[in-house]
Design brief:
Helices cover about 15% and strands about 45% of the residues. The protein is of the alpha+beta class and about 260 residues long.
Length: about 260
């Protein structure tokens, strides 16, 4: 499930031991959500490929056609840590990340901030490359709601409830088993913002299929996020460490000498 989230809107503001079939059972009953998610894991490359998913650096761009804006971004991630940096013309640099403990964000309008509550949990989930294999970390309950159309495909709609009280819908393609998109409230300093995301193209990285192009709608705007390049390999710790501005906000401030 979650491997898609971290690539969607990267700077604009993603245990199953035995694969099961997600085909509807006789009588027209909907498949169990656990079966749908297990099939999804197989569709993106299988449990073994996800477990050895490597560190990587990705670059891409986000287009907001209605405003004539294109935002470039770069993301580095490794072992449950992530850091994103983007440039918005006329606005400046936007940064965000999760270092394994602290979720944070910085931009010229709001300055540096440490995220908490739902925003922090969403950042933790987005950074975790093994989230799809460990629903116990992020899912309190799931239920298959219906079979319906979403993003031009016939999908199973699965409603997810998280341990921190969030609820959202994921849509899995009936034919391919892949995640077709989701509708979720994105936590932000301005409040929760509903985001509808449709994955329109996948690509394969180190044996795992990930979204390459995602179309999202929020606050009456449509934006298209595209991954332009991916480099697999070790990421310097310096790129994933907390920025000094964020360390200064932690209780007790930065260590002496910083």
């Amino acid at each position: 499930m979650n491997l898609a989230y971290r690539l969607i809107l990267p700077a604009a503001l993603a245990a199953l031991p035995t694969p099961l079939s997600a085909q509807a059972v006789p009588g027209g009953a909907l498949p169990a959500p656990e079966a749908i998610v297990a099939r999804y894991v197989e569709a993106i490359g299988g449990r073994a490929a996800v477990e050895r998913f490597p560190a990587r650096r990705e670059r891409g761009h986000l287009e907001i056609a209605a405003q004539g804006l294109t935002l470039s971004w770069e993301t580095v991630s490794e072992g449950g840590r992530i850091a994103t940096r983007s440039e918005l013309p006329g606005f400046g640099t936007i940064r965000s990340g999760f270092d394994g403990t602290v979720a944070w964000a910085m931009n010229p309008a709001s300055g540096p901030m440490i995220l908490d509550s739902t925003a922090a949990w969403q950042a933790r989930q987005a950074a975790d490359p093994l989230a799809a294999l460990h629903p116990d970390r992020y899912v309190a309950a799931m239920r298959t709601v219906e079979e319906s159309d979403f993003g031009g495909a016939r999908c199973y709609r699965v409603h997810v409830t998280t341990p921190w009280g969030e609820g959202f819908d994921e849509f899995f393609d009936v034919g391919t088993g892949l995640l077709q998109g989701f509708v979720r409230q994105q936590a932000s300093p301005q409040g929760d913002i509903e985001v509808t995301s449709e994955i329109t193209e996948y690509r394969t990285v180190a044996g795992v299929r990930l979204p390459r192009v995602t179309r999202a709608r929020m606050m009456g705007m449509e934006m298209v996020n595209t991954v332009d390049s991916t480099e697999v390999g070790a990421v310097p710790d310096s790129l994933l460490a907390l920025p000094p501005e964020i360390r200064a906000l932690r209780p007790g401030g930065p260590p002496p000498g910083e």
